[in-house]
Amino acid sequence: MIYGIGTDICDLRRIRATLARRGDRFAEKVLGPRELAVFHARRARVEARGVAYLATRFSAKEAFSKAIGLGLRMPMTWRACEILNLPSGQPVLRLDGALAEWFAERRLRGHVTVTDESEYAASFVVVETIEATPNA
């Protein structure tokens, strides 16, 4: 059963301006440790790839916070929710700490997708309840 759905769109120009104004502090506030390593690697190769990566993660976290109905209130924090990629490239949610516990207590599972174009990043998140398996 669907618990919640969230979507978000992010203007890459706004992310670029924030990075120019605040530097890496902005990325360090939004990204978890594994995401931050990817951000730095992509940005070192091509600035635009790093910005797009940050924007997709920002957007996905906004969408996730909407899907779970908390917004950015505890236990939902920017860094407790990471959007990582499987070897296939598929984005997946990785939750840590109190947010992971909150999510598990409610028997939830999340699905995320992200995309970006020249000036926008967008994401969509579906959170579902994990049905209890009946005793056989």
Question: Can you describe this structure?
Answer:
With 136 residues, the protein is α+β, with helices and mostly antiparallel strands. Helices cover 45% and strands 29% of the residues. A 3-stranded antiparallel beta sheet has the order 1-5-4. Strands 2-3 form a two-stranded antiparallel ribbon. A hairpin with a 5-residue loop joins strand 2 (81-85) and strand 3. Helix 1 (12-22) crosses helix 4 (47-67). The chain is elongated, with a radius of gyration of 15 Å. The model has no long low-confidence stretch (mean pLDDT 94).
Notable features of this structure?
136 residues, Ribosomal Protein L22, Chain A, two-stranded antiparallel sheet, 5 strands, 45% helix, cytoplasm, lipid metabolism, ACPS, Ppantetheine-prot_Trfase_dom
Number of domains: 1
As a percent range, the share of helical residues equals 40-55%
CATH superfamily: 4'-phosphopantetheinyl transferase domain
Instruction: State the major sheet.
Output: 3 strands, antiparallel
Strand order of the biggest β-sheet: 1-5-4
State the low-pLDDT regions, or none.
none
Give the CA-CA distance, first to last residue.
Answer: 21 Å
Give me the Rg, rounded.
15 Å
Question: What would CATH call the class?
Answer: Alpha Beta
Q: How many DSSP E strands?
A: 5
Q: Could you please say which CATH topology applies here? A: Ribosomal Protein L22, Chain A
How confident overall, as mean pLDDT? 94
Number of helices: 5
- Topology pattern, helix = H, strand = E: EHHHHEEHEE
What is the level-2 CATH architecture name? Alpha-Beta Complex
Shape: elongated
Structural class: alpha+beta
Strand residue content: 25-35%
